[in-house]
Structures are given as C-alpha cells and as structure tokens.
Write a structure and sequence with these properties.
- The complex is a heterodimer of chains A (111) and B (115).
- By secondary structure, chain A is an all-beta fold.
- Chain A has no helices and 11 strands.
- The termini of chain A are far apart.
- In chain B, strands 2, 4, 5, 6, 9, 10 and 11 form a 7-stranded mixed β-sheet that branches. Chain B has a 4-stranded antiparallel β-sheet with strand order 1-3-8-7, with no helix packed on it.
- The chains are: A mainly beta (111), B mainly beta (115).
- At the A-B interface, strand 4, strand 5, strand 9 and strand 10 of A face strand 4, strand 5, strand 9 and strand 10 of B.
Chain lengths: 111, 115
Amino acid sequence: KQEVTQIPAALSVPEGENLVLNCSFTDSAIYNLQWFRQDPGKGLTSLLLIQSSQREQTSGRLNASLDKSSGRSTLYIAASQPGDSATYLCAVGYNFNKFYFGSGTKLNVKP
Amino acid sequence: GAVVSQHPSRVICKSGTSVKIECRSLDFQATTMFWYRQFPKKSLMLMATSNEGSKATYEQGVEKDKFLINHASLTLSTLTVTSAHPEDSSFYICSAAHSGANVLTFGAGSRLTVL
C-alpha cells in the first residue's frame, strides 16, 4: 500500500522567510508528483507537477524537487507572504492517473 | 484552461436519504474521473476510479453499494451516497484526467452534512 507522509504537519513563520515542506512516499514506481494548495473549505489548486523523469520544477517563488530513488520531494517557498497561508498537499501519481495524497502541511505566514 | 465543475457545493440531508453529487468536465472529455473523500483535518482518500461506459473501480474498504458511481458520458460522473448516515458527512472532491495526460484537474468539492 502506498503511503505518503508530509512533514511538518503544521508550520508558522514570519513573513519573508524561505521555507521547505517535505513529502516522502514508500512506492517509488511513480509516474509523477504534484503539489497542491488547499484553502479552508475549498477545493485544490495545482501548484507544480513533476514528471518521474524530472528532478525539479519552478513556478515563481515555488520550487519543487523530486528524488525518486529515495522517495522524497520538497516544496521550497521563497520570501513567504501572508497570502501563502494554506494547507499544502503532496500527491504521488501512479499508473492510470491514480494519486495518493499526504496528510498535508498547514502553513501560516504571519504579517 | 481545464475546468471541472462539482454540484452541489453544499448539501444537507436527513439520515436515510440519498444524495447525488455531479462532477463535470466543462471543456474537455474525461474517460476517467476520480472521487476522493476528505475527513476533517485529514488528507484526501481515493474512493474510486470512474470509467466512462463501464463499472467504477473501488479502493479497498470503500462500499460500492453505499457509494454508487455512474459515468454515463465523457463529461459527467455522478456519486450517489445511498441511505446516508451522519458518519458519511464529509468533503467529497472529484477530479478528471485529460486524455493522454497525467494532469488532474480537481473540482471545488462538495460538502455533505447528514443530520
């Protein structure tokens, strides 16, 4: 059974800090990995998608890396802002578009 | 961009009734859609894979008679929670895959409250 773990479960930082969110997975036979953002009571917004053949993807202040052999991915957020406050979910994609989610990291960026 | 619409966004029902949630891909065809359930302060749990024109594939531990899935067209999948109980109260989210792509687009979710 695939298990996806996210650390830390919660994080509170002052505005402007750079931060790293971690995701680990047990089954390395992945097709891709996606990072999502979820605001309270809302659906999911896709942030970054990394294919299994890629090492990293960047979008603005976000950078996601993937180390398939060790079963790890990190999401780096540069110069954090209060608007970044949300829960960040890591989802590992396998064959037939089946994704398994981690439990999320709840981020609070204080002004 | 690709849009997936879920309806209703919120529904409250009495115990014993059935509730249907719709998931539509608005500007693309989706032969496969996925249904997830999210418990409070927990992550998303994959419930089932909905396949157009065939039976859904359920994950282990998900009652197929409880959660009926129908994928009658390339743009619509429905999840019916039958004989709902308070423990079925949850946030249900669907997603759809573009044909030939490994990118999932998620709906905004449907919050079900069973009284």
